[in-house]
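Hi V.,

Quick status before I head out on leave. The structure for the redesign project is tokenized and pasted below; the design run finished overnight.
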């Protein structure tokens, strides 16, 4: 399947994407994961992105498009992909349309995961992320804690609160989402690709997506 997952930070895009990858060999492409990996590795890309990310601001569209143009041409995208956290602005969506046309790729659907703001805020404040760039597993101190406090179950690396998961940065990210990313729902509605699924359970969101795709 070739899907875009839209939704506020904390809506569950990453969790839903990870479940979907087990169904048909599609891969998850998370621009947030790619950028955090680059920050940790200290690459030029990471150095350029870090300040924006820590403040909860979007990184410039040109940086993101450079990443995605390369990523979508890698071999593992042939079986399908789940775009998680991209596109995030109307210019990114417009550029993506051009890129997909150039690569002769057609999207199946754009899924808008709609979750109430209070649920999201609470989730983000209690979220923990594995620091290992190869893993980046996600936990929640309330609903899905690590077995050992602060240690990733999967790889043993520290599972920590992200630098952009202070209350202040979270409020700013949600604000940025409403201003810059929420308009993408209208953009893809016009293209006839949008499906909005309301729900706080990632399993139910996945069921909804499977039904839409006739799986
Ligand atoms: P979340 O969806 O939980 O906010 P992500 O992991 O998707 O977090 O992204 C973390 C940060 O990485 C964003 O706040 C932003 O700074 C940057 N980022 C990720 N994807 C994009 C994108 N498509 N465009 C611009 N910035 C991005
Ligand atoms: Zn881990």
């Amino acid at each position: 399947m070739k899907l875009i997952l839209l939704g506020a930070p904390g809506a569950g895009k990453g969790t839903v994407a990870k479940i979907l990858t087990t169904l048909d060999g599609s891969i998850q492409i998370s621009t947030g994961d790619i950028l955090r990996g680059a920050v940790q590795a200290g690459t030029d890309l990471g150095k350029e992105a870090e300040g924006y990310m820590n403040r909860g601001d979007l990184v410039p569209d040109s940086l993101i498009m450079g990443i995605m143009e390369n990523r979508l041409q890698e071999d593992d995208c042939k079986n399908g992909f789940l775009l998680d956290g991209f596109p995030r602005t109307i210019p990114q969506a417009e550029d993506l349309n051009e890129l997909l046309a150039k690569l002769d790729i057609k999207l199946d659907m754009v899924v808008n995961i709609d979750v109430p703001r209070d649920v999201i805020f609470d989730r983000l404040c209690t979220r923990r992320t594995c620091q290992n760039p190869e893993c980046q597993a996600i936990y929640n101190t309330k609903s899905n804690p690590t077995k050992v406090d602060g240690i990733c179950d999967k790889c043993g690396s520290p599972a920590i609160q992200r630098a952009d998961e202070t209350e202040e940065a979270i409020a700013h990210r949600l604000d940025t989402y409403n201003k810059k990313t929420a308009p993408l729902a209208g953009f893809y509605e016009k293209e006839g690709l949008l499906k909005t699924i309301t729900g706080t359970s990632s399993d139910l969101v996945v069921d909804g997506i499977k039904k839409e795709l006739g799986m």
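Above is the designed sequence. The first helix runs from residue 13 to 24.

G. will cover questions while I'm gone.

Best,
W.
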